[in-house]
């Protein structure tokens, strides 16, 4: 992302995992763990949406950590359809929590990454340590079995998403009584609309910080 980005490796169940860490200028107020889009379609931790999400959280005082899924970049292993990827994300989270203890955790995902993070959230709940927040961009509801998420999850979706129709996201969100922030004219990749992602995340989490939630 920038000259200060730290590249490091974490041991996963299928080999080493390539990760990137960006720190805020001051003491971090939380951990933002971000998951990239589908690796078989070119998804990496350097995806432009994931980088915009990282910048948004860094600006809010969070540290932002990204990981290349199995078989991407210098991460070892092969694609595991979200199963091994969820385990790997949990390994990275545990590593960050050991290094930066007692910080609230926000899970963020884009496209396929939303499926992985929804599953990680379920694992965290089972262990009695749920995330403090979640941000999904281009949620792949209807395409993969995205799990239920907490009511304060921030969902951002493009009106013109050609991969996951907005109606599919509404159908998934409706039974959970979730709100969806729709960006007019945005496609799945948010081409020429990335600035909306930063604005929406920044506004939402500043409000939470002012309310004393972070």
Largest sheet: 8 strands, mixed
Distance between the termini: 25 Å
> Which regions contain 5 or more consecutive residues with pLDDT less than 50?
none
Describe the strand arrangement of the main beta sheet, using strand numbers.
Answer: 1-2-4-3-5-6-7-8
Report the top-level CATH class.
Answer: Alpha Beta
> CATH homologous superfamily, by name?
Alpha/Beta hydrolase fold, catalytic domain
Protein name: Alpha/beta hydrolase
GO molecular function: hydrolase activity
Domain KANL3/Tex30 alpha/beta hydrolase-like: 42-192
Pfam families: Abhydrolase_11
What does this protein look like?
The protein is globular and about 40 Å long. The chain has a single domain, classed as Rossmann fold (3-Layer(aba) Sandwich), CATH 3.40.50. The chain is α/β, with parallel strands linked by helices. An 8-stranded mixed β-sheet has the order 1-2-4-3-5-6-7-8, with helices on both faces. Helix content is 32%, strand content 21%. β1 (6-12) and β2 form a beta hairpin. Residues 42-192 form the KANL3/Tex30 alpha/beta hydrolase-like domain. It comes from Oxalobacter aliiformigenes.
């Amino acid at each position: 992302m920038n000259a200060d980005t730290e590249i490091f490796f974490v041991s996963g169940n299928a080999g080493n995992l390539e990760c990137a860490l960006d720190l805020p200028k001051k003491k971090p107020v939380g951990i933002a763990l971000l998951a990239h889009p589908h690796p078989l379609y070119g998804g990496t931790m350097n995806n432009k949406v994931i980088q915009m999400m990282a910048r948004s959280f860094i600006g809010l005082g969070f540290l932002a950590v990204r990981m290349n899924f199995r078989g991407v970049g210098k991460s070892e292993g092969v694609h595991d359809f979200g199963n091994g990827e969820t385990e790997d994300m949990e390994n990275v989270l545990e590593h960050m929590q050991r290094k930066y203890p007692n910080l609230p955790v926000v899970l963020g995902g884009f496209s396929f990454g939303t499926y992985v993070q929804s599953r990680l959230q379920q694992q965290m709940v089972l262990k009695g340590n749920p995330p403090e927040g979640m941000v999904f961009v281009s949620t792949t509801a209807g395409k993969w079995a995205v799990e239920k998420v907490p009511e304060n999850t921030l969902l951002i979706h493009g009106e013109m998403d050609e991969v996951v129709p907005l109606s599919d996201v509404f159908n998934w969100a409706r039974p959970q009584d979730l709100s969806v922030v729709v960006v007019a004219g945005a496609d799945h990749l948010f081409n020429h609309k990335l600035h909306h992602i930063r604005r929406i995340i920044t506004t939402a989490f500043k409000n939470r910080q002012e309310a004393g939630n972070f």
